[in-house]
Design brief:
With about 800 residues, the protein is α+β, with helices and mostly antiparallel strands. It is built from 28 helices and 25 strands. Strands 1, 2, 3, 4, 5, 6, 7, 8, 9, 10, 11, 12, 13 and 14 form a 14-stranded mixed sheet that branches.
Length: about 800
C-alpha cells in the first residue's frame, strides 16, 4: 500500500510539472534563505563559548561618573587584576590585556613586515582562555619580558617551514623579542582576535612598574575566572569595599565615581557597546532583525506551498470520488494526501540544502565569516529543518486530506462539489500576508539604504576625502616627521600635510582637565588630540571663533582650540582667552584658548560629538596626514612611495585612505543593507512564484466564464482586467497593513543612531513600495491573464 502511495505521489508530480516546479522551487529557495540566516545567527550566538571555562570567565568593566558625565567603559585600572585575585577568594585568576592599536614593524633577518593584531597579555592568559597552544609551554611562554607568542598563520608568514621557537624578531626598530610559543589562530567567533601575543612584563620593563599602579587610569582589559559555583552578583558586592581601600584619594573627589562590575564573556559580542571596546561588537537587535527576515521568507515560502497545494488539490476531486467508489477508506485518503505533501516538502528541503552549499561561499564573503553547513555537528539546526519540513508538509496536505476526503462520492463525480470549493478566503488572506511581508521588506530596505547614504554624506566637521594616513611607528619614523612633511609638501600631488596623535575613526583619549572657573580638585573629562600647526587647515576644519594655530605666535606652544560642544558644556560666552589646566603625571600645565572649531565627528554617527580640545606638541606625532590634489590616486601614491623610499631605507611605506577607514565603522549597517536587498528580492520572487501559480489556477477555474464573456463580445483588455483586479486588491490591502508595521520598525532602528534621517522626509519610500509591489503583482498575473483571454471561446466552453 505504501509503495502504491509513493508511486502515485511521484506520478502526480510528473503529470503536473509546472505546478511541481513552482511549488518545490519556491519552498526550496525559502528554506535555503532561512538556513543561511540561521547558520549566521547560530554562529553569532555562540561567540566565546568555545572556551572550556566560558561560563566562569568575566570581564571587569567600569561604570563611572566624572563631573556629571557618565562613563561606561570596557577597560579598568591596571592594578585591578592583581588586587581582585588577592582580596576576593571567589576570583581564582585574572589576566590583563593591553591592546596595541597601531600596526608594528617586525624585522626577522632580512625580512620586514607590518604586523597588526598585537596584544600584551599576562602570563595567566592561557590559564583562563582556551586558545590551543601548538608549540611551547602555556605556563611559561609569557612570563619573561620581551617574549612573543605567534599564531600559526603569523609564524608561517615569517618563518615558513623553519622552527620559530627561540628565534628573535626586532619590533619597531627598538627591542628584540624572542618567540616562545605557537598558538592556533583564534576562532572567528571570539570577541577579540590577535596575531601576536607579547608578555605584559615587556610593558612593565619598558614603561616602569609605576605606570601600572594608578587606580585612576582606566586603560586595560581585565578578565577574571570565578571559582565553580561562585555567584557573580555576590562577588560584585565585594567591589566597593575593595575600591574604597585602593582609591581613597579619588573617592574623596565629589565628581569622580567608579563602580566596577562583571560582564559575562559570552554576552560581550551581542550585548556590549561600551566605550573603548577591544573590537567593534555586533548587536542583539541585528540578530532579531536577521531572524525576523528569515522567518518572514520562510513564512512566504510555506504560504506559497500550502496555497498551491490546496488550490491544485481541487483538480483531484474526481480522483477522490473514484477512490471512494472502489472502496478506499477516508483514513487511507488522508494518509495519501498528507504523504504526498510530505514527499514534496522533503524534496524541497533536499534542493534547499543543495542551494545552500552552492550559495554559502558568496554568503560567507558578504558576512566576512566562515560558516559551514555541517548538519551532523549542528544537530539543533538539523532537527529544526526536519521539523519544519514535516510541519509544512502536514499543514499543506491537511486541507485536501480532511476536506476532500469528507465529501460524498456521488456529489464529487457529478461536479457539484467544485462550485462550492472555488472560493477560498483563506488563500486570499495568505496571499495578503505574503505581500505584507514583501512590502515591509521593500520599505525597510529603502530606509536602511538611505540612512547609510546619510552616514556617508553627512558633513563631519572635516573633509575625509582625498586623505591618506601614514602611521609613524616607533621613534625612528617620529623623529623624521618634519622631514617627511617638508619633502612631501614639495610634491605636486600633495596639497597639505600635518601630524597628529589620533586619526578620525579611532578613539581619542579622554583626559582630566580643570577649565577656568572650575574646582581644581574636580577635573572634567575632555577628549584630546595632540597635533601640529597645520592640522586644522589640512583637515579643512572650520574655525568659528578666534584663530587656528600659527607659527607667527611663539605663545602657541601653550595654545588650545576647543570645539563647540565643550564651549556649551562650560557655559562660556567668550571662550577665546580662557585658561584650561591639564596634568602631566604630577605636573600641571596651562593651555590658553585661541580658537573654537566647528564640532567634528571623531567617531561614528552612532555617537554624539564629545567635548574635545586640540593642542600642539611635536613629541606626539603618531600619524602623518596627507591631503592629495584631485587626480590619479594610484599614480599619486606611487610618487609618495618613491619619496618615502628616498628618505627611509629600512621601514617600508604603509598607508591607508581616511574615508575608507572612517566608513568601515558602518560595516554592520552596510551588511544589513546588503542582506535586506538580497533577501527582499528573494521574498518578492517567492511571492511572485506563488502568485503566478494562483493566477494560473484562478484562470483555469474561470475557463467557462471567460468563454461565455468572449462569446458575448468581451474584449481581451476587459478579461485581463477582470482576472487581475482581485490580485491588485490583495496587494493594496497588504500595503495598508505593512506601512504602520514598517514605520514602527524603522523608527526603532533609526533610534540606534545619534544622527539619522527623518522618516517623514522619505515618505516617498512608502509610495514607491506600494507602486512597485502592485507593478510586480500585475506583471506576474498579466502573462497568465493574457494567455487565458486569448483562448478560443469554443475551446473554453468545450471543457464544461
Amino acid at each position: 500500500m505504501l509503495k502504491n502511495y509513493i508511486i502515485i505521489a511521484f506520478r502526480n508530480l510528473l503529470r503536473q510539472k509546472g505546478y511541481s516546479i513552482i511549488n518545490i522551487s519556491g519552498l526550496a529557495i525559502g528554506l535555503a534563505a532561512f538556513i543561511l540566516i540561521v547558520l549566521h545567527v547560530v554562529n553569532e550566538l555562540n561567540y566565546d563559548k568555545f572556551h572550556e571555562k566560558a561560563d566562569r570567565i568575566y570581564r571587569v568593566c567600569v561604570n563611572g561618573m566624572v563631573a556629571g558625565d557618565v562613563l561606561n567603559v570596557a577597560v579598568s585600572a591596571a592594578p585591578t587584576a592583581e588586587a581582585m585575585v588577592r582580596d576576593i577568594p571567589e576570583i581564582l585568576n585574572a589576566t590583563r590585556i593591553d591592546e596595541f592599536s597601531q600596526t608594528v614593524h617586525f624585522v626577522y633577518e632580512d625580512r620586514k613586515f607590518f604586523q597588526d593584531g598585537l596584544l600584551y597579555v599576562d602570563s595567566t592568559f592561557f590559564d583562563i582562555f582556551s586558545f590551543d597552544l601548538i608549540r611551547g609551554n602555556p605556563k611559561t611562554a609569557l612570563v619573561k619580558p620581551y617574549s612573543l607568542v605567534l599564531t600559526k598563520s603569523t609564524a608561517e608568514k615569517y618563518f615558513g617551514h623553519e622552527d620559530p621557537i627561540g628565534k628573535t624578531i626586532r619590533v619597531n626598530d627598538k627591542r628584540n623579542y624572542t618567540v616562545t610559543a605557537i598558538v592556533a589562530d583564534p576562532p572567528e567567533n571570539s570577541h577579540f582576535g590577535f596575531r601576536v601575543l607579547a608578555s605584559f612584563t615587556s610593558q612593565i620593563k619598558t614603561n616602569g612598574k609605576e605606570a601600572y599602579e594608578n587606580w585612576g587610569s582606566l586603560g586595560l582589559y581585565t578578565y577574571v575566572l570565578l571559582a565553580k559555583g561562585a555567584n557573580p552578583d555576590e562577588v560584585e558586592k565585594r567591589f566597593p569595599e575593595m575600591y574604597l581601600q585602593y582609591m581613597e584619594d579619588l573617592t574623596k573627589l565629589e565628581n569622580i565615581k567608579f563602580e566596577p562590575y562583571l560582564q559575562p564573556i559570552t554576552k560581550i559580542h551581542l550585548h556590549s557597546n561600551l566605550m573603548a571596546e577591544i573590537e567593534t561588537n555586533s548587536d542583539i537587535s541585528y540578530i532579531y532583525t536577521f531572524l525576523a527576515v528569515a522567518i518572514f521568507i520562510l513564512l512566504i515560502a510555506c504560504i506559497n506551498f500550502m496555497n498551491l497545494s490546496t488550490a491544485r488539490s481541487m483538480k483531484r476531486a474526481r480522483e477522490v470520488g473514484l477512490r471512494k467508489v472502489v472502496g478506499a477508506y477516508r483514513k487511507q485518503l488522508i494518509f495519501q494526501f498528507i504523504g504526498e505533501s510530505l514527499i514534496l516538502s522533503f524534496i524541497g528541503l533536499i534542493f534547499a540544502l543543495i542551494l545552500v552549499e552552492i550559495v554559502l561561499p558568496v554568503f560567507n564573503q558578504l558576512l566576512e565569516q566562515e560558516l559551514k553547513l555541517d548538519l551532523f555537528r549542528n544537530a539543533n539546526v538539523f532537527a529544526l529543518l526536519i521539523g519544519l519540513a514535516i510541519i509544512v508538509g502536514f499543514i499543506a496536505g491537511s486541507y485536501p486530506a480532511f476536506y476532500l476526503s469528507a465529501f460524498q462520492p456521488i456529489k464529487v463525480l457529478k461536479g457539484t462539489f467544485t462550485k462550492s470549493a472555488k472560493r477560498s478566503p483563506v488563500r486570499n488572506v495568505l496571499v495578503i500576508i505574503q505581500f505584507t511581508i514583501s512590502v515591509f521588506l521593500i520599505i525597510s530596505t529603502g530606509f536602511v539604504y538611505n540612512q547609510l547614504s546619510f552616514l556617508r554624506q553627512k558633513k563631519l566637521g572635516f573633509n575625509k576625502e582625498n586623505m591618506i594616513i601614514i602611521p609613524l611607528r616607533g621613534d625612528r619614523l617620529r623623529d623624521k616627521s618634519e622631514v617627511f612633511k617638508s619633502e612631501f609638501l614639495n610634491l605636486s600631488c600633495v596639497s597639505a600635510v600635518s601630524t597628529s596623535r589620533f586619526v578620525p575613526g579611532r578613539d581619542m583619549d579622554g583626559t582630566g582637565y580643570v577649565p577656568e572657573g572650575y574646582d581644581e580638585n574636580n577635573p572634567i573629562i575632555i577628549f584630546t588630540n595632540i597635533v601640529d600647526h597645520d592640522y586644522i587647515s589640512t583637515m579643512e576644519m572650520q574655525i568659528i571663533e578666534g584663530r587656528e594655530f600659527s607659527r607667527e605666535y611663539t605663545t602657541d606652544s601653550s595654545a588650545v582650540i576647543i570645539n563647540e560642544t565643550l564651549v556649551k558644556k562650560l557655559g562660556w560666552d567668550e571662550p577665546v582667552g580662557k585658561k584650561i589646566s591639564g596634568f602631566n603625571n604630577l605636573d600641571i600645565f596651562d593651555l590658553h584658548v585661541v580658537g573654537v572649531v566647528q564640532d567634528f565627528h571623531f567617531r561614528s554617527l552612532h555617537d554624539v560629538v564629545e567635548p574635545s580640545l586640540i593642542f600642539i606638541s611635536p613629541d606626539h606625532a603618531r600619524n602623518l596626514n596627507i591631503r592629495l590634489h584631485a587626480g590619479n590616486v594610484q599614480q599619486q601614491i606611487s610618487i609618495i612611495r618613491e619619496k618615502w623610499e628616498e628618505i627611509e631605507k629600512s621601514i617600508p611605506f604603509d598607508y591607508y585612505f581616511l574615508h575608507e577607514d572612517f566608513n568601515s565603522q558602518y560595516k554592520a549597517e552596510q551588511r544589513i543593507g546588503e542582506i535586506f536587498i538580497y533577501f527582499t528580492v528573494i521574498a518578492i520572487f517567492i511571492a511572485c512564484l506563488g502568485l503566478f501559480g494562483l493566477a494560473s489556477y484562478n484562470a483555469e477555474q474561470k475557463t467557462k466564464e471567460i468563454g461565455i464573456r468572449k462569446a458575448l463580445g468581451s474584449s481581451v483588455q476587459r478579461i485581463v482586467f477582470m482576472l487581475s483586479k482581485q490580485f491588485t486588491k490583495w496587494i493594496f490591502i497588504a500595503n495598508i497593513i505593512a506601512w504602520p508595521v514598517a514605520w514602527y520598525f524603522i523608527s526603532n532602528w533609526l533610534g540606534n543612531f545619534a544622527y539619522n534621517i527623518e522618516i517623514l522626509d522619505y515618505w516617498w519610500i512608502f509610495v514607491v513600495s506600494a507602486l512597485l509591489s502592485i507593478f510586480i503583482a500585475i506583471l506576474t498575473v498579466t502573462y497568465q491573464a493574457i494567455k487565458t483571454a486569448l483562448t478560443n471561446p469554443v475551446d473554453a466552453l468545450k471543457y464544461e
